[in-house]
Design goal:
This protein is of the alpha+beta class. It has four helices and 13 strands.
Length: 237
């Protein structure tokens, strides 16, 4: 397994050719977190500060392996734990929270102060192509050079959940969880051809992220989102 580090990524970015004014696509920022993890609230708060950045698409995945400490994460899903396990194999690391994965290729502790540096390195190394998604949930996939297998994944998410935690390490806390994933669906392979893809009416008022990702490296090749409908801003659990 190849470990990605800030040092190795910086070296790759320095060697990569870049156009002077190349347009940068958004960077996918995945936070793996848990309501039962005592070190996660600070990372959840830092994650909330990323929401207004137009160059990022931040999504939080609540994992399930801390449920054994006495509080079952109300946003947790075994599929999200599986996704983190997949990244652990690619990155050569064990499972931990809070974990940030940037662009599918680099991870940091969720509260690491070097986040801005890492994001710049990911953006400079290989800009992501943009996927446009209409309000009706129709995605326009761009044309891309694709070698090997590339998978399309749709992530449904909610804007905000306000959770009162009653047991476990964070007992007595009330935490705001932003951009929490609620579904994760494999939509099949993509050959890099430009086409339209209907994501379906089942999305309702939820937000959706669509990404094209290389399963052998984790690299996010193309990325886009439809934000949640206005008014679908909060839920209390």
């Amino acid at each position: 397994m190849q470990r990605r580090s800030l040092l190795s990524l910086a070296a790759a970015a320095a060697l990569a050719p870049r156009a002077a004014n190349a347009a940068r696509g958004p960077v996918l920022v995945e936070l793996f977190t848990s309501q039962g993890c005592s070190s996660c609230p600070s990372a959840d708060a830092a994650f909330a500060g990323l929401l207004r950045r137009p160059d990022l698409i931040p999504i939080a995945f609540h994992v399930t392996y801390w449920d054994r400490l006495g509080w079952r994460d109300t946003l947790g899903d075994a599929a999200f734990t599986d996704r983190q396990q997949w990244y652990a194999g690619l990155l050569g690391k064990g499972l931990y929270t809070p974990q940030l994965v940037l662009g599918g290729e680099l991870d940091l502790v969720g509260s690491d102060p070097r986040l801005d540096q890492a994001l710049t390195l990911v953006q400079d190394r290989r800009p992501t192509l943009r996927i446009d998604i209409s309000a009706a949930g129709v995605a326009l996939l761009p044309e891309a050079e694709v070698t090997g297998e590339v998978r399309l994944t749709a992530i449904g998410y909610d804007r905000l959940h306000q959770v009162a935690i009653e047991r476990g390490e964070n007992a007595g806390s009330s935490v705001d969880y932003y951009n929490a994933a609620r579904s994760l669906d494999d939509l099949g392979a993509w050959d890099g051809m430009s086409r339209r893809l209907a994501l379906g009416p089942s999305l309702g008022s939820a937000g959706v992220v669509l990404l094209a990702q290389d399963p052998s490296t984790g690299r996010v090749i193309a990325l886009g989102r439809r934000e949640p409908a206005q008014g679908a801003t909060a839920a209390t659990l």
